[in-house]
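Can't attach files on this board, so I'm pasting raw text. These are the components:
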Amino acid sequence: MGLRSMAKVRSIRLKANRLTMPRRLVWPCLMFISLLWLPLPAQAESVITTDAPICNGAAPSPTMFAPRSTPAQDILDITWLVIGIVGTLGVIVMAMIAFSIVRYRHREGDTDEDPPQVYGSSPIELAWTILPTLIVFILFLVSARGIFEIEKEIAPEGSLEVTVVGHRWWWEFDYPEYGFVTAGELHIPIGDDNTPISTFLTLESADVIHSFWVPQLAGKTDVVPNRINHLWLEPNTPGRYLGQCAEYCGGAHANMLITVVVEPESEFKKWVANQQKKAVEDPAVVRGRAIFERTACINCHTVRGTVANGTFAPDLTHLMSREIIGSGAVPNTPENLRQWVYDPQTIKPGCDMPAMKLTNEEIDLVCKYLETLK
Ligand code: CUA
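---
Top answer:
Structure tokens for the assembled complex are below.
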């Protein structure tokens, strides 16, 4: 370094020294720094003490801080460990900064001379190399162990296997063991404390990348075209759990919700037995069924036992066994169902189903028919 540039560096350093903080700013700055830390403990407390938000239709936001399944609990354990370690380090660093600001602030009578400059200290340099390396190593090991526990590639013995297919913008649930397909609501059984039942999901996509995320039951897993991913759930509390497609996949992405119904095995078996049946044939609604069967509905939807065998859209064989329509866009009430048949775009803008341009009478008849699909 030439003499000139050395002089320049020194003059910059002198200027920097003159920029020391006026005393009246010290306390506001400290208060601001301490405010940054306030929300963290407050939030942590509130999420731990709340009960699991069991979601029903228009549900509250689900949270990963109230896990109700083994993998979700594993993830939360790791999260707390990481927050604990980095939080402690953060507090230490902030405290040291605050201490330095107060202790070494500019005081009256101070000169603009450089303080004594200290270069090189082997013990300190070794400490700040080895300690962070150790911390990173611990975090790496714990995360790696967690990932191996959470990412099973092969279904555990005795688990229920379900294939989940992400479509724009709904979820298809295929139960190969039982030979039926459904949509929107994933039903899974829960065991007891001694023998929990796990469900092994095979995730596929029919079009673009989606992401399957039910925060209380498992981690987020991408659903990728031409690739098969797996995920497993082992719930410990019955209830309805809400999830969300967590990868932006186009216009109706925000309305691509997931409902998981966790129920005792006996209830689950009953549900399966009903889903396996063909659609109900109610003579009272033949006119509605005839309209359904001669419109374009049948190109996209399946109603088992009728000519409708489309696979672009949800299977409607047991539509009324679901509490939601439009993949969770609205609760499945007669009013919402009618509005959906009149014009789905008013409920789920951007979805692939157009208004079928039916007359009011035809809409009523089709809805009467759909309402028999229990
Ligand atoms: Cu599917 Cu976002």
